Amino acid sequence: MSKRVFIFLLSLVAALTAWAGPYETYYRNLPFSLQEPALPAIPDLAVSLTDFGGVGDGVTDNTQAFEKAVSALEKQGGGHLVVPAGVWLTGPISFKSHMDLHLEKNALVLLHPDKAMHLKKGKVVPGISANKRTDISITGEGIIDGNGEWWRGVKRTKVSDTEWNAFRRMGGTVSAKGDLWYPFDLKAFDNIADTYEAQEKMRTHLIRFTDCERVLVQGVTLQNSPKFHLVPQRCREVTIDGVTVRCPWNAQNGDGIDLMQCKDVLVVNNTVDVGDDGICLKAGAGEAALKDGPCENILIVDNTVFHAHGGFVIGSEFSGGMFRIVVRNNTFSGTDTGLRFKSAPERGGKTENIWISDIYMSDIQGEAVVFETSYADRPVGRDHAVAAETRNFLPDFQDIHISRVVCRDARIGIRASGSLQTIHGITLEDCVFFYTEEASQVDDAGMLLLENVRFGTYR
Length: 459
Prior knowledge:
Layout: H1 3-20, E1 46-48, E2 57-61, H2 63-75, E3 79-83, E4 86-90, E5 93-94, E6 99-103, E7 107-111, E8 119-120, E9 123-124, E10 128-131, E11 134-140, E12 143-145, E13 154-155, H3 161-169, E14 171-174, E15 180-186, H4 196-200, E16 207-210, E17 213-218, E18 221-223, E19 230-233, E20 236-241, E21 244-246, E22 257-260, E23 263-268, E24 271-273, E25 279-282, H5 287-290, E26 295-301, E27 304-305, E28 310-314, E29 322-333, E30 337-342, E31 351-372, E32 400-417, E33 426-442, E34 448-456
Parallel strand pairs: 1-3, 2-4, 3-6, 4-7, 5-10, 6-11, 7-12, 10-16, 11-17, 12-18, 16-19, 17-20, 18-21, 19-22, 20-23, 21-24, 22-25, 23-26, 24-27, 25-28, 26-29, 27-29, 28-30, 29-31, 30-31, 31-32, 32-33, 33-34
Antiparallel strand pairs: 8-9, 13-15, 14-15
């Protein structure tokens, strides 16, 4: 074992000890018991990307170097793939079991802006992915950048003249109305679809782990994804700790952390500043979601969300259900909404045993707390929202308990839009909402039970 790798292993053990800390303390005094997720078991072996021909000069394509390193670790039963300081341009990275991707300080892994490199068998794959793997992690102090400006459509109304002109210099296509720019017919790279509408639908996630067990993402910065940044889907025993997620405020579909039908999850000490929902739970839409199950046994604690469409969000798809979720001691500063519950027919499901407490908010552009059961998606370039046409899979927001929320400067304190069939059994207790426009908008007083909830405004 080289001296450098030995030193890395010692520092990694120390870092994991410091980072992991006593996670059990977060599981004390909960309204019900939750299972703390087990951390992944990674062998002590460590290799450097440079051992496999990697060059961090920002020019060299390191796709094959990552593939060779991952293959070598797999043959030896797993281990740590260390990425040193540098700018590491690469295509997709696919994880194997018992593998840690460790980014040292000043390591910047940059997804290649050529979209064709992310095509496999005609489909676009995420920047980093794992499917049916066990014991996997991403750790360290480095950055993973999705190069999202080469993927995302841009609304003219959401950028300055300087930004708009910068996009135009890339080439691309402007809509007939002049209100949208698409990264289609770029000067530097070929298209991957026949039309800009089709290519827009092919945007990929930065990181997606599917059907995996014992997952850890810790310490790294995730930024500028083509679409969502971190997406564990149907995973079990997931820990997301001390991660920074960031992208431009106007990044279309730029969600931060999206948990999809996951079980036994801890989301702790993260900082999110993104273009769409901050920390979001989803559980699929319609009949197909039932077999994949709910989001269940989730603890979300000590996180900070700056810009986002919602600080903590359920929906819009949750037909599989949302059960046994605790959200506490989080700060939302500058989000569009604070606690956001959104869904619609064909997307809805049931919530059960959800406890939210000690939430601190400021400068909320819309509602501090909002329930919406006629949510409609509005993709970029679509003039009208896409709404469900049937009454199947109605939302059933119930058994949600919100307490000790303090909010300064929300336009509206509380809004609930729907019916008693879709919103009921919701309690708010010991909360303070300082609003700038209206205290509340509630379609039916029976939807919400308020106890010791105070509203205030400037006059």
